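Lab manual, section 2.4: Encoding a predicted structure.

Procedure: take the sequence of the chain (230 residues), apply the prediction step described in section 2.3, and record the output as structure tokens. A sample record is shown.
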Amino acid sequence: MQWILFLLLLFVNSMEMLTQARRKKRVSVALFENCTGCVMCSEDNGCTACQQRLFLLIWRDGIRQYGACVHACPPGYFGLRGQELNRCSKCRSPSCESCFSKDFCMKCKEHFFLHKGKCFSACPPETLAQSSTRECQEKCETGPWGNWSPCTNQGRTCGYKWGTTTRVREVIRSSKEESAMCPTLSESRKCRMKKHCPGEKNEKKRKGKREKKEKKEKKRKKKMDSLMAT
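Recorded output:
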């Protein structure tokens, strides 16, 4: 009975070793297929050194560690060049898709917003979320409103019943990217104007006297011409 149990355990152990050997062989084949650009390639761990200008990417699968040489680091990693080895280093933040350095993110994963190199699920106060770029932009800060301008119509300050007056305010703090987010910087409203310009009444009065005098002169001349005809 003991011999039967011993043989059964030996058979099970052999099957497990055979399965592990096959799995190891498949992994090794896959690694050697990806050994392009490797200077050194291990059967168990893949690439351990790369050609110049290539980056060594290392990742884990359980307790095993594998390496491959790549031209560009994948999302979540950034390229770190060194004198002896160029390496793909992982971004510290798990919500970062692309980073410039370990702690400075350049692009966040979906559902996160980028602000000053960090990824946030919700933008900090005094910023606005831009869904198109997935970034948090600081709000534009403006100064107080200035005084209303003189009431004008077609460049004139008189001679019309109604005109328009305008006031403006300046931006105190804003970048070029934030300019589109600034609130209204100018506003206008309807205003009442002086219908008659200064001196216009006197000019009209003088014009009226001239016209009256000319009519009177024409009438007198006509009368004289009729008398002479008779």
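Check your result against the sample. Helices lie at 2-33, 200-229.
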